[in-house]
Amino acid sequence: MDQITLTEHEDDTRPGTPDLRTVDCDPDFWYPVAWSHELKAGKTLATRYAGQPIALVRPTEGAVFALEDRCAHRQVPLSKGTVKGQSVQCCYHGWAYGRSGRCIDVPYLGKGKLPNGVRTYPCREEGGLIFVFPGDPALADSVPMPRLAHVGDPEYRTRQFGPRVACHYTFMHENLMDMNHQFLHRRQMGQIRARFLGQDRGENFVEARYSFARTDTHQPLAEALIFGRHRDLKGKEQPVEEVVTVRTEYPYQRLWIVDKDGDLMMDLWVAYVPQSADQRTSRAFGLLSVRRPKIPFLIDLIWPALAVFTNRIFEEDREVVELEQLAWDAQGGDRNREVFPVVNHLRALLTRCGRPGRNART
């Protein structure tokens, strides 16, 4: 087990390093911007990435495509328009735009007088999510899509969650990576203690491993299904029966749990997608896959309770990270004094892989 000492502290707030809360996401990755079920056939959907308005369009036939959500004429949102074949018509004057973003029809002009079109975004649909590539479109084909938990695997049942959070995306990465915050969830999970087992890191990832020990006798059923059945051993050290691994592989985050036999019990994939231009509001897109137990119908019976439990956990996390953002706003910068090496390595990763924001300060 790695020992946590202050000599391992890697300070990413040294002079010349930008405030982490002003570091933008690197746009040259695939980011989810909507759930597939949110966009019906023959309809449009307004969404955004870091202040960029995006109109998703699903023709009655063919794949989804994504355009800048502004008509080139009067800047009215194309998401208010009408889908016609493989194009979308602006609701104002009927200007039509195809998949390429090119204007293909202005009803009152001749075909030889068509104006310029709008920006198009590379777009893909996988795992019940609609992704766009908001960066350099020339890079899109060379950047791999993320692995999305166990969507579609019959051995697992997967739930979706996608709440909006009023904080910079980096707070969310820190929250999940640092399992020492389980004290926050004592009302939902009882008294448990995280034990740090070790870490790994590379150019584009940071990973931490934990186990959990119960320090009281009460364990909620939903928590036992996720983290395993733990009991108070009355002062004795809890054996390591499950290992929880948290990994930020930029820009995504994953948490998975394996039992003592090495079998995968749970797999969580999540992306924190900035919504506002200053990236201080985010939308989380998460996929939580839980292995089906030996009794086939058992997971269907407990699924509603599991959903309630995980929602309550996330609500507690959401409240506290939004409080962190409010503190940043009030103090005019990041005054965090982090002593956990894994989190400092994570902060350095997010700074290194991100882009300087428009309001970056050094």
From TrEMBL:
Pfam families: Rieske, VanA_C. Gene3D superfamilies: Naphthalene 1,2-dioxygenase Alpha Subunit, Chain A, domain 1, Rieske [2Fe-2S] iron-sulphur domain. The keyword Oxidoreductase applies. Residues 30-132 form the Rieske domain. It comes from the Bacteria. The keyword Chaperone does not apply. Keywords: 2Fe-2S, Iron, Iron-sulfur, Metal-binding, Oxidoreductase. GO terms for molecular function: 2 iron, 2 sulfur cluster binding; metal ion binding; oxidoreductase activity. CDD domains: Rieske_RO_Alpha_N. SUPFAM superfamilies: Bet v1-like, ISP domain. InterPro entries: Cholesterol_7-desaturase (IPR050584), Rieske_2Fe-2S (IPR017941), Rieske_2Fe-2S_sf (IPR036922), VanA_C_cat (IPR044043). PANTHER family: 3-KETOSTEROID-9-ALPHA-MONOOXYGENASE, OXYGENASE COMPONENT, IRON-SULFUR DOMAIN CONTAINING PROTEIN. This is Rieske 2Fe-2S domain-containing protein. It comes from Gluconacetobacter takamatsuzukensis.
